[in-house]
Amino acid sequence: MLRTALGVTAAAVVLSGLAFTAPASAATTCRYTLSADKDIPVKSGPGKQYRTVGVVPEEREAPIFGTCVTKGTGPTHWIKVAQGKWKDAYVWRNYFDRM
Description:
The chain is mainly beta. The protein is built from 1 helix and 7 strands. 10% of the residues lie in helices and 28% in strands. It has a 3-stranded antiparallel β-sheet with strand order 4-1-7, with no helix packed on it. Strands 2-3 form a two-stranded antiparallel sheet. Strands 5-6 form a two-stranded antiparallel sheet. It has a single domain, classed as SH3 type barrels (Roll).
C-alpha cells in the first residue's frame, strides 16, 4: 500500500473525498407552474400506484418547488415536492411547466 507523508493511505484519501461529494442533481430545485386544466393528485411516492395524499387545485397560481425532472413516463418523471404541506410527496411532471 502507498502511504502519504502523514501516514494515510492514498486510497483512504480518495475515499474520504468521495464520501463528502454529493451529486449536482441532489441539491437542484426547480420551480414549476400547473399547466393542466384539472386538479392534480399529490402522491406519497413516484407513481400512480401510490396513495393520494392531497390535490393541487386547478386554480393554483403559486409555483411548486421540487426536483428537476423531464416530462415522460415512469418513476423518474415525478417531481418530489421540496416545500410546503406536500414536502417529500410527488406530482407527475407532465402536468407542470418549468418556470
